[in-house]
Known about the structure:
By secondary structure, the chain is mostly beta strands. The chain is 10% helix and 36% strand. It is built from 2 helices and 9 strands, in the order βββββββββαα. The chain has a 6-stranded antiparallel barrel with strand order 4-5-6-9-8-7. It has a 3-stranded antiparallel sheet with strand order 1-2-3. β7 (108-110) and β8 (116-123) form a beta hairpin.
Amino acid sequence: ATKVTVTLSNSDKALPAEVVQSDPRTDLAIVRITEKGTYPTAVLGDGSTVRVGDWAIAFGSPFRLAASMTAGIISATGRKLPSPDSPYDYRDLLQTDASINPGNSGGPLVNINGEVVGINFMIFSPGSSAGSVGIGFAIPINDYTRRIIDTMASGKAFERGQLGVRIKNLDTAMRDQFG
């Protein structure tokens, strides 16, 4: 995005904001409102304690319908999905049937106590024009994402170690080749 604004649920005013840091691998970003003031904040919960069957409430602005919420349950935890638009796989996602549509991405997925346990992320859709079929995913708020968020909030980029190796099953031809 080249221009970022934040609209709070208690106002129609679009507040100017800036992206402090982003992490494309997890699709997380820190956005800071640039206009001076005191603003409400959400309470971060713990997505690692979420269980299948727990209530899930997705907030966002689907199809530009501001301040919408939908309710459902956590359908699965620990989902791993390949990303068609990214070289990264997404791991440990929360799966929910709370309706997530275009405009919900980046919004909070909250538990029944109002704590943010995930960030609405993507949907499963069987075709390019099928839209939502009731299978949505959220990035969980857990120790790993908290480290990323804390690092980015301090103005630093989150760095990951990399070994430069690839794991592969050893077949007979490879075993013979490498002795």
